[in-house]
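Entry 14. Ran structure prediction on the chain below.
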Amino acid sequence: MSHDQNYYQSLERAIQKEQPDIIVISMDHYFNLGENQKLQPLNSWIKRDGFNLAAIAPAIVNSLTNEQGDIYGLTPTFNASALYINNTFFNEKGIPIPNDPLTWDQIFQLVKQFQHQDKEDKQYGLYTKYSENPYMMALHIGEGSGLSFFHARNKQFALNAKGWGNVFENVLNCVRTEVCFDLKSPEIKTTAKKEEAMKTSYQENHPFLIGNIAMAVDDSTLYSALTGNNSLFKDLDWTVLPYPTSADFPTTGNGINMEEIFAIPVGAQHPEEAWELAKYINGEDYGRIFTQINPGELPARKPASNEDSRLEVFYKLDKINNNMINTLRGFPDPVLAKMDQLSQTYMADMLDEKTTVRDALDQMQRELQATLDNSNH
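Output, structure tokens:
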């Protein structure tokens, strides 16, 4: 975690200096520029030309539309996460393979049934991209479950709010019992053979492909590896389910990311031409080409009924709430430094059961709030 106060300003300065007609930006830049009224609303063009927003995944349209109903950009593709299931593991344990979406709580209940007995041949219950950092893993899961660790409007931390204790308990139990995959584990073997080297490269990026993990929350690049390299991973019997959410917010999650949003800056010299380009790139034909160029990306337009039915799991969310990294990026340096220090200290104490989760979260809450209040003076 590092704070870069020029992260947004540098792009704003570049836009002001170069005055481009169209820009391609990530989600965090999109939201920042939109809030600062640096982008032109596309609504009038969309309405005039009958551009079909209904064909685009609801989560994407909802995310790109602000509270006033303005939409400032369009994206032809996105990256989405899902829950990957190792069917063999479930069958060996006599556990029915899930067919319906699971909540995070249900996943952590299932995880307990995959505690490994054999020290030589370790098996794991769960992998997420935050497995290496239990604190960030808890923040990510909490956010995806509809919780907020910080309220920007009143600048108050909320780590001790209802719900966070349960999230941290689940993560800590998973790590403590070593059922969560350890990224430092030696399962990935290096090799000189070309095909095996390619396989190893995939496994380094997506440990689920090693074959010793029951469930993995990973992105659509893993889906591409599984479906596009059947010869490499043909022995892996797998299922994919929608991204885990919470019982309270079943269609809201933080499993979607957009890196190529096309937007028209305020002050563009040729806005009409810029819109024509954005309309073409975000049209049905070009979107399909885009995903062929980058197979890990998914088309923003929902798949046709004759396509792989498994693709539908990536389009189940209606709303996106992945603000965690953006929130962290907005903190002053002293707050981030304090958070690093506190998370290491208290996560270790909670893992060793030297303190309760409730007491640790209360203490972290107080110290982080005090650091933030002092840094604002």
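Residues 333-351 form the longest helix (19 residues). Will compare against last week's run tomorrow.
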